[in-house]
Automatic annotation (TrEMBL):
This is MFS family permease. The chain crosses the membrane at residues 25-42, 48-67, 79-100, 112-131. Residues 134-153 are annotated as: Disordered. Residues 134-144 have a biased composition (Low complexity). InterPro entries: MFS_trans_sf. Keywords: Membrane, Transmembrane, Transmembrane helix. It comes from Streptomyces candidus.
Length: 153
């Protein structure tokens, strides 16, 4: 999953700038939902491998977009602490999800465990459609580099 995610992440640089981060976030989370639902129906290890192979494509673009949105909506003075909090929150969120998934896998089988991943993807998608898109005070939606470029600096 890591190689496909890395390739997809690198390819996000090719997305035209006119497609804003909020739109990219919505697309990435929708892709996570669509690509993770087949986890619930994988009946063999080979089918599971194929699904995980494909779902990896949506992971890096999602994370890159989240980090980019964070950079755009926060004042520069709070950026380092906010990025550290965001990445720590990612790990902290994975821990209980893994514990619940493991318990569900042991008691109810793999589809129940994969439902946690699908639920997390649905939660991310819902969040992407409910959270507004606004730049931090003193920043433009294009970010500081875009603002400097537009100002001719």
């Amino acid at each position: 999953m890591g190689v496909r995610s890395a390739v997809a992440g690198l390819s996000t640089a090719a997305v035209p700038a006119r497609i804003g981060l909020h739109t990219r976030w919505r697309i990435a989370t929708a892709a996570l939902v669509v690509l993770s639902v087949p986890l619930l129906f994988a009946g063999s290890p080979w089918q599971l491998y194929a699904v995980v192979f494909v779902v990896g494509i949506a992971l890096a673009p999602h994370m890159i977009t989240i980090l980019g949105r964070t950079e755009r909506v926060l004042p520069a003075t709070r950026l380092a602490a906010s990025m550290a909090f965001l990445m720590s929150g990612t790990v902290a969120g994975q821990a209980p999800a893994l514990a619940v998934s493991g318990r569900l896998a042991a008691t109810s089988g793999p589809p129940a465990a994969f439902a946690v991943a699908v639920g997390a993807a649905l939660l991310c998608a819902a969040l992407s459609w409910t959270v507004g898109s606004r730049p931090a005070p003193g920043r433009t939606a294009a970010g500081e580099r875009g603002a400097r470029r537009q100002a001719g600096r």
